Amino acid sequence: NALKAYENQDYPFEELVDKVNINRDMSRNPVFDTMFVLQNMQREEKSIQGLQLIPYVGKHKISKFDLTLIGIEEEGQISCMIEYATNLYKEETIKRMSEHFMQLIDAIIDDSHVKLSSLEIITSQEKTQILDVFNKTEIEYSNEKTIHQLFEEQVQRTPNQVAVVFEDQQLTYQELNERANQLARTLKAEGVRAEQLVAIMAERSLEMIIGILGVLKSGGAYVPIDPEYPEERIQYMLKDSKTQLLLLQHHLQDRIPFEGKLVNLNDEASYHKDGSNLESIVTSNQLAYVIYTSGSTGRPKGIMVEHLSIHNFIQAIINKIPIMEHVSILCMTTFSFDIFVLESLLPLVNGLKVVMADSKALTEGEAFNQLVNRHSVEVMQGTPSRIKLFMNQKEGIRALGKLKMLMIGGEAMPPGLYEQLRTYTDASIYNMYGPTETTVWSSIERVMKSQLSIGKPIANTRMYIMDDQLKLQPIGVRGELCIAGDGVTRGYLNRPDLTKEKFVENPFISGEKMYKTGDLARWLPDGSIEYLGRSDHQVKIRGYRIETGEVETALLEIELIQEAIIIAREDKDGLKQLCAYYVGDDSLTVEKLRSELSKELPNYMIPSYFVKLTQMPLTPNGKVDRKALLELEGNLQTGTEYEAPRTVVEVQLAEIWKEVLGLKQVGVKDNFFDIGGHSLKATALVSKVYKEMNVSISLREIFRFPTLQQMAGRITDMEQHIYVSIPSAEEREYYPVSSSQKRMYILNQLEGGEISYNITNVITVKGDLNCKRLEEAFRQLIQRHESLRTGFEMVNGKLMQRIETDIEFSIEYMKSSEQEVDNYVQRFVRAFNLQQAPLIRVGLIEIEPEHYLLLLDMHHIISDGVSMNIIMKEWVQLYEGEGLLPLRIGYKDYAVWQQKEIQSERMKKQETYWLDVFSKDIPLLDMPTDYV
User: Fold this and answer.
1) In sequence order, what DSSP letters do the residues of 527-566 get, joined into one string?
2) Which cofactor(s) are needed, names only (predicted)?
């Protein structure tokens, strides 16, 4: 509290910064970023041990903190003002914040004895805006109809139109309807009653769709079970749902023991002769399906979804997205994941064609592209992880480029994904949000810019951002996202306690249920919602919702494990992965842990990383310190003794593995998937191996040969000409340029001496800097990297690059006051003459003793962001006197190899593709301009 803080105010702030070991962002204040000042303002101090290298931030008109509330006490009153960072807050946001503050102050003045928890900071105008404007979503629809009735109506409209396709098989709407009717009669003969749960365990097939419709038509509710789930999880779902009927394919009959009745979807005897429609025995407020999701108690929980909720969802999607403008939709999601409904039931009640992907098309870009081409698919739904998987494969990129509509959801959309997609596809992109408890998606945003929101509520859906007391939060203030409306499901099967906890009375509409999502969010001024993460320990990994408590429970059931905590960590692509921290016996290996977990958990719930600890870090309150765990790197156990790479291929491959997985050491016995690899990283590995070793290894082979030794052996077995490394070019006066260098040269000529393609890095250096060593380190860098000694000129009408053997280089030294330093930085960045090497300049501004700015300016034709990082990393190593291994090849060797590669058969195919693209109207270069 404030008194304790006052008692301990003398502790040096700099020491605190070092001790807490926070992630540093030198453009922000460490430890805190909001300040209240009553009399004076503290001077912001920053301190890092040793020589400081701090990313430079210009200081003109920049707030010292994100937000500062300044109170000036004078003449018996306190006048307040707010100072804020304009790159974080808009003026209207600060005005709203001021209104909330005044609302709070007025309420306290009116009653100084009121409980703080009962106070509201939202204004009456905002409350009206949220309840009556943002949540004005009502539309009318025939809410008395069931899903199978809607399908039967569609059959009457388009009986001969193709309804579903899988591999070389297809069914028209009439054929699918008759087949489902035949199965439904068999199920009714087996005693299926209204709302009776019927399990379906099937792999992707026409039978899967027939089974779903057959169960609905019989009056039952289906329970989808993925055959890939562990036996124990399947048995739990069957037991918890109390199902007496299990529909499955012939080859899955021996998958698990089952005491109830088995119905073979491949057996003609399972289908009654009568294929006419049945009289419906259920109404729209009865169950359609029960989907199991991860549960915090260690057991999955079944969510009960009614026909009305699905119907509303379908109508809302059609109302929000122009999906009916297209003919077919790709079905890629496992049917045990609720977003499968959008890819199956939604199109089937609206006359679209469902194109079911086979297992190859789910992960392999080539198969995916062939499927899109073969069926002229224009609409796809996918998680960010799946989209990124295809973006890392050339054929996957081609397929994405042919889509007209892309719906992304299931997990938070990473920053930058929209811009990356925009380079590959012109498709309309939608960001989708919704928990299973409110029926698939509850809000949608048409993505038009990189700043993402989860959009606005869909039809007949109301969203509220609430505090802990279930009071409305104002616009811009975070809180728990709660959802009400027709999409809210019945609750959890056999879990009345949990249903009561999560499904509460809507305080704004009498008699209506409201689901507490556990998601943190805030309203944006335009009525859309920004997602801010979870309030508990529930996470989404590659689209699957996971209660980390369930994984922890499974870990703790393993003998010799004393403690376990599961945390989701973001990788370098911004995607989350599970990391297990545990205290246990030294004999436990990752291999054993994975094996034990796989008996209870599906593959997507098994952690990517395992970190062994001697004890869990604790907070002062004695709770596990999860923030401290995130800062621990730990050791990733592999369960195998380290054996160093020996052959050339093993050494090369080990370096690639280390880069892809972010590890410092990889042994030949290590399994790619045991040390942090998954399908997305496997795709990155395929791309990296091809780029650096010129080997075209498939994603399937990564799974077949998962250890480094096996993978290296596979590569060695390939034909010699496939994996020859990029050779060193023979020495000559001029070398050809790469395709990207040629493009950069042309753009530079168009700019005419501008600095648009300069890459600049400015570092604040504090400490005893040795200027002589600094300059010598950069001289060594320039001698080490040929690109830094390269100039460009036209030779006989062709652009060529020339590498200088020796080159003059010196650092530009300047002195400046703190006030004038920004002007010096701006003058330092100037246009390069591309003919004159080096295309790098280094400057050092001395502001005062032991306080400098290090300026680094390079042209994009010889570097990029990655290159800049390498330059800075190697400069530090050379400055500290560390030796660097010699480089086998330089960029000119790559350029020579690339020009030869262009003539290869693989490149010829790409050439054909681009010629086809440009055979139509040539797209204009969309140059950004300030004025029309």
Assistant:
1) S-EEEEEESSSEEEETTEEEEHHHHHHHHHTSTTEEEEEE
2) pantetheine 4'-phosphate
